[in-house]
Design goal:
mainly alpha; Tetracycline Repressor, domain 2
Length: 301
């Protein structure tokens, strides 16, 4: 099973589930019924598992070309595994990967139907965008914007679980926050980590197109925007979050995003890109912990 979990990047996927959890609590201001929580967790796990698997399936040829010279690079702690890219390493067959993807994708669609049929449309859109993202590997660095939309799909779906008719401006605010976090804290650092391999196959990424200095500046700008928009997110919640919440989310953004982002901008070293990716991966989980404390405090008081 380790090869299948490596294929679907399960460790990273589990961390990603924190973002939908945070958004659901933010919009509802309370905990959903227990059965909704369980079904939502299962559906989110199935969706992230299938979409990450799809990434490796569609990008298999490029991954094999990319790592044909020096082998799989060490990666970073969240995704550091000797089994990274099992399809590219021929550690897993395509048919097995297709069955794995199809099973989890079907479960994600079924779960979405029972939560809110609208979510099926979101999953289908995320699937299409993920395919586009992979196909743009050698076409344009602007594919990073597509990556932001894919990563935002899960949290947007979570909103529709707790609010069937969300206020559009607030939804766009959440979308902007997620896209900025994904681009500056996940997508660019991941590409930075693979810059040697990507250059060999003429890939189009922000670190390769702009160079380390400008890419680092883009990281700083997007992460700063992520922190600024995070300070506006309390406007969405039906419960008063107040200054203590803003202070907590500001600290989370500084230590998990801005500080490691600035270190990367200053040095341009690959291992600092990996460090930023790791810390940014825990940012949604930290936000979930913060909002949970405030929701509990509201419930108790």
């Amino acid at each position: 099973m380790n090869r299948f979990f490596a294929l679907s990047r399960t460790t990273h996927g589990i961390l990603d589930i924190a973002a939908p959890g945070f958004c659901a609590l933010l919009w509802l201001g309370a905990f959903p019924p227990f059965y909704v929580v369980i079904l939502s967790l299962f559906t989110a796990f199935a969706a992230y598992t299938s979409i990450y698997t799809l990434n490796d399936l569609v990008g298999m040829r490029g991954d094999r070309e990319k790592f044909s010279g020096s082998g799989i690079n060490p990666g970073y702690s969240v995704e550091a595994s000797a089994l990274r890219y099992p399809l590219a390493q021929n550690a897993l067959g395509i048919q097995s990967a297709m069955v794995w993807f199809s099973a989890w994708y079907a479960l994600a669609l079924i779960g979405s139907y029972f939560l809110n049929p609208t979510i099926i449309i979101i999953i289908l859109a995320a699937t299409f965008l993920e395919i586009i993202y992979c196909l743009l590997f050698k076409v344009t660095y602007l594919r990073t914007l597509v990556s932001g939309l894919v990563k935002a799909a899960g949290p947007v779906a979570a909103v529709y679980v707790v609010n069937p008719n969300p206020h559009l401006p607030f939804l766009l605010l959440q979308l902007a926050w997620l896209i900025c976090w994904e681009i500056g804290g996940q997508n660019i650092p991941a590409d930075w980590n693979d810059v040697v391999e990507d250059r060999r196959v003429n890939a189009k990424t922000i670190p390769l197109h702009f160079g380390p200095r400008k890419a680092g500046l883009i990281v700083i700008i997007t992460l700063s925007l992520a922190i600024i928009t995070s300070l506006l997110l309390p406007l969405i919640s039906p419960i008063p979050l107040g200054i203590p919440y803003v202070a907590a989310t500001l600290l989370a953004g500084f230590f998990l995003l801005l500080q490691p982002g600035y270190e990367l901008y200053q040095s341009g070293e690959n291992h600092l890109a990996a460090r930023l990716f790791d810390k940014a991966s825990y940012y949604p989980l930290t936000q979930l912990a913060i909002i949970t404390v405030f929701v509990l405090a509201t419930f108790v008081l």
